[in-house]
């Protein structure tokens, strides 16, 4: 029995009704019916319009409630003001899913937004899933489903297309048809008032017809679901994404078009890197990358080798590679020896390889083979300019033959027009990316190498807390609660540093003086020289207001500085509230680098961590590296490496390299703060001074806000941390210790091996078939989970013979679309049955779902699985027969009293 996805009524409907069907040429209702007929829809098609007897030969009904068949899907093509009434009728008729093509909702202003809200509320009341409004519709070519008003259709294929713009969908389809590129699914989301990217992506993960995914994004509504689904998809299927609204003007246009919030583009970029997808910036890049990825082109790294018969084009390619941060391959001694025997004496003897203008077919062939076989090469750009002794077509045919057996990507650039046209055609037929100029060829390699890098980031699922000494979370919370109780959102420097100290971040000790005499006493206690800074919640940049004095080496200087600071601040910031003057030791680090570590709140993705050059340059240099928490050592290292300041952290001029371990420690601790303190809206450590001996936070500023308590302690984050706090152990009577812990992406091989060793009977009862191994898409779905909406616990025991652990059982639940219930599954290794493990796992799972606030747990069981039926009844499940399938029993467990 094939497990049906809950969006099947929308994307795999057996019956479709077009509401607003019309005989009027080129009306939306007319085009939809025509498209459905032309596509050869395999299910039952109905038309609804009280003014027609039939539309294009399809009998027409006065109302959806008059249709003599329960509809899976209703396509609504009526004016916006009539949609609410139609949705109510669909609810009464038992329609399962609707597509609203009509415009005039949230994108049109407050009145339209109110109407949209009422429509969504009506759909939810009847448990109808809604796509749109203001969308083009959907296509499933394999099923003969074209529920759109587009004037272009899609060929059958393996690409899934999801777009917030219907116009872009038609553009892509118009390009794809003559290029013989087909689609498994095409979905235009429109306003995404109900169904958004996340749910469509989840469907495509499990859809065997979809092998790769293209996305056009303006803005997203549910960052957590988006990230979870995007990461799950990218683990098994290449995902290409265009995100628009990179600048404020574009963001405003998006809001008026779809009502979406686009957020900060640098944060979105960081999210996409973490999700393991390729971000593209224009349609040309999209089409080029689609041609490459959706054939056989797979990246493996970012080191590029360039082969050319002209020096100038080679330099152009090198310049573009430098712009994009693509390193050129450094050829090994063995590769250089081969090239010296192949090429004439005048060759460049470096990368790019200039084979000279008389390069023939043999020279091209042997050079490409030598480079592909050598180490330190992740891809090759082969370039050709038409010269007197060069046959562009013959060279192209030779490159095609070499590429057939290559395990590294090959990109080509045949420059010119008439003389190279046949050569380019040979590459197109072979599926080898080819370009007219060097720059887009290098850009393609850049995008695909970024995919390789991002796939590594995708695998990271850090816990909320690191393996380091635990922080004093309670102390940090008390500091925040005290400020909020006093109706303050800006923590003073001492409070801000108290938060850092609670998370073990080294700080410069700070005290506050409220008189010149007190300043001298405190300075002597701290030890001269000292730094003095104004302590005011109203002042962010203390130096700009005259509120900072450095390197004060005497008590007389301290007394004078106290008075000067107050006078300067009162003159420059007369309205500022002044608490006093902060005093701290003067940090003297001869080899110190001044850095900034920050936290800010993005309107879409929540808290993000920033890193870059600090001190007085932080405002001038806004080019900070950005990452989404939670972080681990790998992600911290990637964040540092991606910053502009990274080049200054190694050996620099006369300075030794900084203590990278100390810097990484601070970033890990800031990540912990972000996870565990949802009240934080901004944090800035500036400067964080790092040298060869360690790191110290010299100044810090934190702002907080009052938030309502949530059942999900990580509701403020786009990526749910690994819930390590849910790990437990269970000791068997024979002394065997079973570890029960949440599943991780790294458990993919463990899960595959577990399923492989199950008996045919166990496989059948769990998966409804006796497959030998889990398909890759299913492995990703089972191991790459969003801990907010899903939970899976593995039971493992220590392995033998070098094996760290062995999986002996697994249980899981997934929250249903209603947000109130979840569906569970459990399976135990055959040799661990009848030992109480299944009951133990289910106890842990039920407690987790109950603590999550879910109301019910559901199960679907084969009626023939009597042992399972007896087991779940013992847990308190109430069983009933499935009205649609007599071979299945349904079970429900109430989780709350």
Description:
Residues 497-716 form the ATP-grasp domain. This is GNAT family N-acetyltransferase. Keywords: ATP-binding, Ligase, Nucleotide-binding. This protein is an alpha/beta fold and 897 residues long. The protein is built from 27 helices and 37 strands. The strands form 6 sheets. The protein has an 8-stranded mixed sheet, with helices on both faces. The chain has a 7-stranded mixed sheet with strand order 3-4-2-1-5-6-7, with helices on both faces. Strand 1, helix 2 (28-39) and strand 2 form a beta-alpha-beta unit. The longest helix is centred in the middle third of the chain and has 21 residues, at 438-458.
Task: Please outline the helices and strands.
Elements (H helix, E strand, L loop, with lengths): L7 H4 L3 E5 L8 H12 L4 E5 L5 E2 L2 E4 L11 E4 L3 H14 L3 E4 L9 H16 L3 E3 L5 E4 L4 E4 L7 E8 L2 H11 L6 E6 L8 H10 L5 E6 L5 H12 L4 E5 L4 H11 L6 H11 L2 E3 L2 H11 L10 E5 L2 H14 L8 H10 L10 E2 L6 H13 L5 E6 L7 H13 L5 E5 L6 H10 L3 E2 L2 H21 L14 H13 L7 H10 L8 E3 L2 H11 L3 E6 L12 E5 L2 H18 L7 E6 L7 E10 L3 E8 L11 E3 L5 H9 L18 H17 L3 E12 L2 E4 L2 E5 L23 E4 L5 E6 L5 H9 L3 H8 L8 H8 L6 E9 L6 E11 L5 E8 L8 H15 L4 E7 L3 H10 L2 E5 L2 E10 L3
Parallel strand pairs: 1-2, 1-5, 2-4, 5-6, 6-7, 10-11, 10-12, 12-13, 13-14, 15-16, 15-17, 17-18, 18-19, 34-35
Antiparallel strand pairs: 3-4, 8-9, 8-11, 20-23, 21-22, 21-23, 24-25, 24-27, 25-26, 27-28, 27-29, 30-31, 31-32, 32-33, 33-34, 35-37, 36-37
Helix pairs in contact: 3-4, 6-7, 7-9, 9-16, 10-16, 11-16, 12-13, 13-14, 14-15, 17-18, 19-20
Looking at this protein, list some descriptive labels:
single chain, 897 residues, alpha/beta, eight-stranded mixed β-sheet, seven-stranded mixed β-sheet, 27 helices, 36% helix, 23% strand, GNAT family N-acetyltransferase
